[in-house]
Q: What sequence folds into this?
């Protein structure tokens, strides 16, 4: 049996490290060059906020109601469930051959019940009601 050392395991990651360093280096160089070589001609027209070609109405620094942030956070939280549902759905059929189909189904049912309880809690707390 061949002896595996830490150095031999880490040496296989050297190309990935080099590629990452090159990507970071090229990105930093391009940002730096655009900062150094880019034209700087500020004007009030360029400093104004762009609103789809329309003349801006009011300040761009207005505060948004907290409901918008709450809905955005809830969307992100409940949208993450699809990140877990897609791979599960893709591998569920393949689990029939190894006898894990019922376990996988129970596991996902538990996950969906927990999500549903969270959804009901948020709904009962009035997070989806606009006043």
A:
């Amino acid at each position: 049996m061949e002896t595996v050392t830490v150095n031999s395991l880490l040496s296989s990651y050297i190309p990935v490290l080099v590629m990452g360093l090159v990507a970071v280096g090229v990105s930093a160089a391009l940002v730096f060059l655009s900062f150094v070589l880019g034209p700087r001609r500020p004007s009030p027209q360029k400093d104004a906020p762009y609103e789809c070609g329309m003349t801006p109405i009011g300040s761009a620094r207005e505060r948004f109601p907290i409901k918008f942030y709450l809905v955005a956070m809830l969307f992100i939280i409940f949208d993450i469930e699809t990140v877990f549902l897609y791979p599960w759905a893709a591998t569920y059929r393949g689990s029939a051959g190894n006898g894990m189909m019922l376990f996988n189904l129970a596991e996902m049912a538990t996950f969906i019940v927990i999500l549903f309880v969270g959804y009901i809690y948020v709904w009962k707390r009035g997070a989806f009601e606009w006043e």
Remarks:
- Residues 66-124 form one domain.
- The first helix runs from residue 6 to 11.
- The chain has a mean pLDDT of 84.
